[in-house]
Amino acid sequence: MILGLLVAVSAIPSSGWLLHPHTGSIADILPRGGELVCATTGGVIFGTVVDEGAIRWDSSWVYPGDLGHANCRCLASSPDGSIWVGTWGGGIDMYRPDGHRVHFGQLEGLPIAQRIRAILPDSSIFAGTTEGLSIMEYGYFQTWTELNTGRGLPDDNVTSLISSDSGLFVGTESGIAMLRADGYPGSPSSWVGFPEMDGKKLNELAWCSDTLWAAAEDGLFFLPPGGAAWTKDASFPFEKAFCIASDGTSLAVGSGWLSVVREGGVWSYKSVWGGQDVKAVAFGPGGLVYAGLTCELDVDDMGMGVGVRWGGWYRVTTPLGIPSCSVHSVSLDDGGTCWITTENIGAAVLLDGTWISYTSVLPGEHQVFASETQADGSVFIAPYACGAAWLSNAGTPDTADDEVIAFDITNSGLLSNRILAIHRAAGGQTWFGQIQVASEEASGVTRLVWEPGNAETARWTSWTAAGGLPSGAVQAVFGLPDGSAWVGTASGLTRVGPGQQEVSKVMNSSDGLPSDEITALVLTRTGRLYAGTSSGLGLVEPGASTASEVAGVDGAVSALVEDNAGAVWAATDKALFRILPNGRLEEYNTLNCPILSTVIKDLACDRDRGILYIGTDHGMWTVDLGGGLSGDGGSATLYPNPFHPGDGEVLGVAGLEDIPTEIRVFDLTGSLVYEFAAPDRDGIAWNGADMDGRPAPSGIYVVQIIQDGFEALTGLALVR
Q1: How far apart are the C-alpha atoms of 569 and 575, rounded to whole Å?
Q2: Which domains does the chain have, with CATH numbers?
Q3: pLDDT digits over 657-666, tens only?
């Protein structure tokens, strides 16, 4: 059976989306007196060098709002003091000295991808893009490519630009050429080629005295005054040159984790930060050298900030913010404190507006795929192939009082050190989904019951393929209060426990699931089980032994969560979907909301506050859903409304404190139709039947909500 849904565009306004970016990966540095302007993967940041080379980060331009995209790649300043920002997918933003912003995108002629690698405000505005050289005259860009220049341009991927009296030098992924001054770009005769540079990937160009220098992937090259050919600098001590800058008499070159400075014809170099590439260099006042860092593993993932050469060494300062762009998991404790895990820098927690990172205390810091908070505010963190570490940070930013216990196959009941999923059940049990890669490891799902922080109290129970699981590769688990759990494997869905040998209800594609491979699970407050698969979203109704496919949710599902209004969010490789309790479907993608990527690794929801957390490969988003579950009752909201009973839906109330609650349902004549009291807000549920168990007819009803010190009336539309 296919579950039919009404499809709608996004319903949450753009103002409700907030990006938590990483601003440590530095792609370009623009010195302006004592101020640094830095283009980063998370926006533009401004800093001031203070005592002994330390940087005080003062302000930023962010996306959405200030910029067309968060990932900024290049900067330039025009004679009038305007700052030009080239982004990786959002075109160009120009800020005038008075703060007025002008945006240039596809409507202004930039290529469709809008990926900008270089900007040169000159007599015209030149922009190097991944799709050609764009030149703006009279307010509109025209793009020139290898094809429409008669192969005068060596490659469409333009990496660097610099002007001279003779013309414009254009560096590309496959060589360099010069566009003659006043030459027409569409004429091959307007271009001067340099065959000796054919096939070389240029990174950046810089003038030093009257010599032009080029940083390239296979070394450092220079074009002497009046020279007709480029020459490789044999004295340059490294194989690659990522970036280059000049103060007129000296050169600074970034190469690997070193910044190399050429003064008086002699090279000297200092380490800036191991594991980081220097992808941006600049000279500051008084002979300062600035080195911008990016991760050598992934330019878009993380970086350690900016190093300032102070005397004979570099002092590195990392901007505050999320520690990495690539977020693998998001977990919230009962108080709403947010933990994340990342691709290359371990885990982090957001305390009092500041991110505190954890790397060295964990058994591993790369590919930290899973995390889950515990009732006491502690957290389990699982670096891939390293088991799981339990960490208690005592709720303080000081890491000296933290407690860590590492569990792996040598000192626990874990089956494998490769954990892909963790879930804490309402009953307090913690479940671990594991896979097998190494031959000495088993795989399956493991339940832990313990007194947090006391390893001696730990009781481990496991289920494997030999004991009835459809597969030992467990990628999703959802624990239940009674000690049982729903388990998603590579070959189907099953229910295990609470006893060690109990395995039941095995389901796969032959039972209605879109695919055998289960990738995510969530059980809603109404008892509906949503199963994300590699080919769509499945639904198992309460008590059912078969599934149905949720129509309209396309792609491989990576994460599921229920929000404060009873809706289910499903992240796929196509979009982010929201399935409302009334069956309506909302779709959020890069075209209809500010989100930059549909590579979504995890979802979490603070139901008390109505905040959705989205972990992506480009930072973490928070979305204000409105109508959290806690409040003074003044924002009490019925959901779903209209209410369609009869298909498993039950009526809930959001916007309430988590205290004893009573509801009374009246028809328009004032007759009492239904009343119910619950010990907490989540216990409120009406299935649409009257006090005698008969279905209440379609119509308008008045619902009275009663809590200690609060009483409200609200309308409800019931539709059958």
Answers
A1: 11
A2: 63-158+168-194 (2.130.10.10), 327-624 (2.130.10.10), 637-718 (2.60.40.3080)
A3: 778 888 899 9
